[in-house]
Specification:
- With about 50 residues, the protein is mainly alpha-helical.
- It has one domain (about 5-50).
- Helices cover about 45% and strands about 10% of the residues.
- The longest helix has 14 residues, at about 30-45.
- It is globular.
- The relative contact order is 0.29.
Length: about 50
């Protein structure tokens, strides 16, 4: 279990041979962090990250 979407990205970077899925309940205060994590994963080219 992770506490933030960025934690999930760190796990995805450390374990490129595993699929990492980040599920989140979207509220107005949490949505920006989840969008940022998804954009950052795309920027890094992490094919094993699903945010």
């Amino acid at each position: 279990m992770v506490h933030s979407p960025m934690d999930a990205l760190r796990i995805a970077e450390a374990h490129p041979d595993h699929q990492v899925v980040s599920l989140a309940v979207e509220f107005e205060t949490t949505a920006p962090a989840n969008v940022l994590a998804a954009r950052h994963a795309a920027h890094l080219g992490l094919a094993n990250s699903r945010c």
